[in-house]
Write a structure and sequence with these properties.
The complex is a heterodimer of chains A (319) and B (433). With 319 residues, chain A is mostly helical. Chain A has one domain. Chain A is built from 15 helices and no strands. Chain B is an all-alpha fold and 433 residues long. Chain B folds into two domains: 297 residues, Orthogonal Bundle (ABC transporter involved in vitamin B12 uptake, BtuC), CATH 1.10.3470; 98 residues, no CATH class. Helices cover 72% and strands 3% of the residues of chain B. Chain B contains 16 helices and four strands. In chain B, the strands form two sheets. Chain B has a two-stranded antiparallel ribbon with strand order 1-2. The chains are: A mainly alpha (319), B mainly alpha (433). At the A-B interface, helix 3, helix 4, helix 10 and helix 15 of A face helix 5, helix 11, helix 13 and helix 15 of B.
């Protein structure tokens, strides 16, 4: 593995990790504020991608970059207002099941509207191709990946400033820990919930807009990413934004390096002088390459973390 | 009334009647419905009943919401089908009729392993971890084609055991014979799982579900209680997997997938998790959606999802709680007053549902089957999706249905609430009759 290749992999991993964090940050905010694990969070990511595809077909990519996340946020806020809030009185399990049923419905509705195959949601022409000055150095890195990272970082900076430097951010932070006190001070806490839920969904939608064309826009995209972002927020620690950030980047980089590696246990055995043949016990395990194991790695990490540190990397909740 | 340690316990006649009736139905139903389709449907319902009841040992009885229960049934199914193939090769002396037991033991074994990790947490983190474990096993199923059979799955042949108990012709080949095998297992599992709810472990599981802190305070290890329940639940799920291996004679990666895990969650919750018979009801309804409705429409999962969300929003106790609430009204002889509002609300709901179905089917036809021509047949009538009249008609049915439903719903709710208030008042005025 030479240096250029490792650098490109690292950049790819970071851009994927940032995308994961755009999703897990919204999920974590919603979870720590409302106690609701939004099972449909990745479905909003998918809606974002499909809406962006449709809008960019009509009026172009740049308007879609703004309109689609706002539309997804609006859809999320409406669902919170007319669906989730009604279920709230039954407790957390029905809330979780409501979002679970919602993910079921959304994937079906997407298939009703856009069909079952992937849609041709393409990278905009202005950002298609590698970065020129990096290519001169012998490193091929797509412009669009860099754009993804830029959008993610800008969004995260905006989110940080919103939460720490504005009045509404203070109310949100206060409502996280002391909802009754905030309500007693005259703030409309249910409306803050609606804003946070809609905002979290808009973040997921934005991730969909920039992730949908970097990867593939298809009905299975929500299920693929959904499980990974759950791993991220458990590994990072339930309700911890900083933990989610570290876990997103770690899993993003780990996944990207893993799929490009053809190392295996048998190779390791040969290094210490043991030869593995098809007759060796457990040959199917010995011959597996890291690339083949890549889809399982995040879940193995999850199991490992639970055994070693049940509250997650930076979590404070023990339950 | 103080239920002391020495309590007079007469034979619970009602319970014997209900279980006797259930056994009777299991025996008689395939003789009433003789078509092959009805029998396959009933076999699959019986398997789903075992699966959903095993799921409810977690969700209903121990308060553990699992998104990865198919792991136990699916791995049980894989072990059962490999055992079946070993029986065929003559390397395993084991009767085919007891094959589900192998599935069950495999399910319990993986319950021991995975349960140790998952039950470290309860509540929402437990739900997410089970999802992760489920995804992990599904991803692993594509990594080890030797055991999981890759895309094609593993095939078997259920007749290899020869004649059961030496009775000629009883090879479990014909669908009626395999139905009775499944029904016998299903009934035995139902009785066993019901009995489990009355054991100290079953009671402790309820305590851990309701107040884990207090259960811990009186000296119980809540994690261990959850773990034991998960192992037993994995055992029964594995039996369901073994039954499905016998029934279909093929096991694919779909058996351990998130689709299967989600399905059993829908089934149990639709039926209702608060009562033992809820998941049985849910399994029957779910199988009907998954097998019968899927014959007619590609959008059956959408209807199932909408039905599920409506249950979560308006009847979180599931169908079983709806039935029991109405039984209570009947017991207090007030049901007659509800008949008229019920009639109105059901007619309006049907009209609304009809309009929504029209819209969905027409849209689905446009996206998927437009190559077959613009005309789609729904409920026996043709609709031309290329012309606006059909859309205007469907939209007006939806609008009219929605308005009528909202009106009828309010009328029904007023009467229902009034009846409930009267019942509550009566109970308060006549304490301990």
């Amino acid at each position: 593995m030479n240096f250029e290749f490792a650098l490109i992999q690292l950049l790819n991993g970071i851009s994927y990790g940032l995308l994961l964090f755009m999703l897990s940050s919204g999920l974590t905010l919603i979870f720590s504020m409302m106690g609701v694990l939004n099972f449909a969070h990745a479905s909003f990511y998918m809606i974002g991608a499909y809406l962006a595809y449709q809008i960019s077909k009509w009026i172009g990519y740049w308007p879609a970059l703004v309109i689609a996340p706002l539309a997804v946020g609006l859809i999320g806020a409406l669902i919170e207002r007319w669906g989730l809030r009604r279920v709230h009185k039954w407790g957390h399990v029905p809330e979780l099941l409501f979002t679970f049923g919602l993910s079921y419905i959304i994937v079906e509705l997407v298939q009703v509207i856009w069909g079952r195959a992937a849609v041709p949601y393409a990278v905009p022409a202005a950002l298609d191709g590698p970065i020129d000055w990096l290519a001169d150095l012998g490193i091929t890195f797509p412009e669009y990946r860099a754009f993804m990272m830029l959008v993610a970082v800008l969004m995260l900076a905006a989110l940080y400033l919103l939460l720490t430097r504005t009045r509404i951010g203070l109310v949100i932070q206060a409502a996280l820990t002391h909802p009754h006190q905030v309500e007693a001070l005259g703030h409309n806490v249910p409306r803050v919930f609606m804003l946070v839920f809609g905002g979290g969904c808009a973040l997921a939608g934005l991730a969909g807009v920039i992730g949908g064309n970097a990867f593939v826009t298809q009905p299975a995209m929500a299920a693929e990413l959904g499980a990974i972002i759950f791993v991220v927020i458990v590994v990072g620690g339930m309700g911890s934004l900083a933990g989610a950030f570290v876990a997103s980047l770690a899993i993003g980089v780990m996944q990207t390096f893993a799929v490009a590696s053809d190392a295996s246990l048998s190779g390791l055995a040969e290094l210490v002088g043991v030869t593995v043949t098809p007759q060796t016990f457990g040959y199917s395990v010995w011959k597996l390459t890291v690339a083949q194991v890549a889809p399982v790695l995040p879940f193995l990490l999850l199991v490992l973390i639970l055994i070693v540190r049940p509250k997650g990397l930076m979590g404070t909740r023990e339950d | 009334m103080d239920p002391g340690p020495l309590r007079y316990r007469p034979i619970n006649l009602g319970r014997w009647v209900i279980w006797g009736l259930t056994a009777f139905l299991f025996v008689v139903l395939p003789l009433v419905f003789e078509q092959g389709f009805a029998r396959t449907l009933m076999s699959q319902m019986a398997i789903m009943i075992v699966f959903a009841l095993s799921y409810n040992m977690l969700l209903g009885q121990s308060g553990m919401l699992s998104f990865g229960h198919a792991v136990y049934s699916g791995l049980g199914a894989y072990f059962a089908i490999h055992a079946l193939n070993m029986i065929a090769r003559g390397t395993l002396p084991w009767p085919v009729s007891l094959l589900p037991l192998i599935g069950g033991l495999a399910g319990a074994f993986f319950g021991v392993i995975f349960g140790y990790v998952t039950t470290k947490k309860a509540g929402t983190p437990f739900a997410m971890i089970t999802l992760g474990i489920g995804e992990m096993v599904f991803a692993a199923s594509l990594m080890f084609p030797g055991f999981f059979g890759g895309e094609a799955g593993i095939n078997g042949n259920r007749t290899v055991g020869g004649n059961f108990l030496g009775i000629p012709g009883l090879t479990f080949g014909p669908d009626l014979q395999v139905y009775y095998l499944i029904a016998a297992w299903c009934f035995a599992c139902m009785v066993a799982m019901f009995a489990l709810t009355h054991t100290p472990l079953g009671r402790m599981a309820n305590a851990v579900r309701d107040n884990p802190e207090r259960a811990e305070f009186i000296g119980y290890n809540t994690q261990r209680v959850r773990w034991f329940m998960l192992i037993l639940s994995g055992f029964f799920a594995g039996i369901a997997g073994g039954l499905s291996a016998i029934n279909f004679e093929i096991v694919t990666a779909e058996n351990v997938s998130a689709i299967r895990s989600g399905g059993v969650l829908l089934a149990a919750f639709i039926g209702g998790v608060a009562f033992f018979f809820g998941p049985i009801l849910g399994a029957i309804v779910f199988s009907f959606f998954a097998i019968a409705l899927s014959e007619y429409t590609k959008a059956w999962q959408l209807y199932l999802g909408v039905f599920f969300v409506l249950i979560v929003m308006y009847a979180p106790g599931g169908l079983s709680s709806l039935i029991l609430m109405n039984l209570r009204v009947m017991k207090f002889r007030k049901f007659k007053r509800l008949l008229d509002p019920y009639f109105g609300v059901i007619v309006a709901a049907l009209a609304l549902a009809f309009g929504v179905v029209l819209m969905i089917e027409m849209t689905y036809h446009l996206t998927l089957d437009i190559a077959l021509g613009p005309v789609v047949t729904i409920f026996g009538f043709p609709y031309d999706t290329g012309r606006p009249e059909a859309w205007v008609f469907a939209a007006s049915v939806v609008a009219g249905g929605a308005i009528a439903f909202e009106y009828m719903r309010r009328r029904f709710k007023a009467e229902w609430d009034q009846v409930q208030i009267e019942i509550e008042d009566w109970i308060r005025d006549n304490p301990e009759d």
